[in-house]
Fold this sequence. Notes:
Elements: E1 3-7, H1 14-26, E2 33-37, H2 39-48, H3 53-64, H4 66-72, H5 76-87, H6 97-106, E3 119-125, E4 131-134, H7 139-146, E5 156-157, E6 163-166, H8 168-171, H9 175-180, E7 185-189, H10 234-254, E8 263-265, H11 269-274, H12 291-307, H13 317-320
Helix pairs in contact: 1-3, 1-12, 6-7
Amino acid sequence: xxxxxxxxxxxxxxxxxxxxxxxxxxxxxxxxxxxxxxxxxxxxxxxxxxxxxxxxxxxxxxxxxxxxxxxxxxxxxxxxxxxxxxxxxxxxxxxxxxxxxxxxxxxxxxxxxxxxxxxxxxxxxxxxxxxxxxxxxxxxxxxxxxxxxxxxxxxxxxxxxxxxxxxxxxxxxxxxxxxxxxxxxxxxxxxxxxxxxxxxxxxxxxxxxxxxxxxxxxxxxxxxxxxxxxxxxxxxxxxxxxxxxxxxxxxxxxxxxxxxxxxxxxxxxxxxxxxxxxxxxxxxxxxxxxxxxxxxxxxxxxxxxxxxxxxxxxxxxxxxxxx
Length: 323
């Protein structure tokens, strides 16, 4: 069976995704292809080189490592050190070198095409404004581009001669290339606090959930995606505005694909919270203080989803469309 994993971006929520991946691999669900964006691309690349339980456990260790947190969410001191460069008309607030070094340690291949499992990494081309799906190229450069959140990290000039940034600008959950491929089953792991693959009535992130993506709803409180503290700086305003625009665009981009009979959407962070599996929600995509909780919740959510027949259950097209 041709099985494709689609891994969306979501900053610190990548830990939740890693927990779910561990349980899928433990269950014998080894993908024959993977598609990822931003942090989802990083998780996919980590596992695509060796899709084994031991490697999946190493991915958990990667997310628990304080060095990972420092790179993906630099301290205020690190940002202050970068600020003089920003004043000199630099193209980003942060230095790309720490992330480059981390990527080189995590992905052991000279080209994406060398990985054991075919991997497609999504970036956004700044010149044409379209999503680009990379199946080859130096992993460090392509992954760096996929994670280059505009304003925080500089664009990456890839071999096509164009500048590329975070794939989440236009394609945060890259379902399209998975649908275009010859896959029998597509498992979607959306790592957003405000997931774009939510479906009315079946996802705790949307009004009146009858279930939390197959899990029983344990909370009477409506889910509201947490937002980081109110923006007090120009960059904060830009990032918050970008997140809102990105969510709207990505939700529209994947809406029709969710009705494809090959697609299964695993529980989101919202569903884990509503099902009582996540005691505390992160305050935003850069909150790594709850990493252990996210990993445990991702594992429990995936296990519960599988036990409830998530692979077999298939709502009607009308239900998927929220009719």
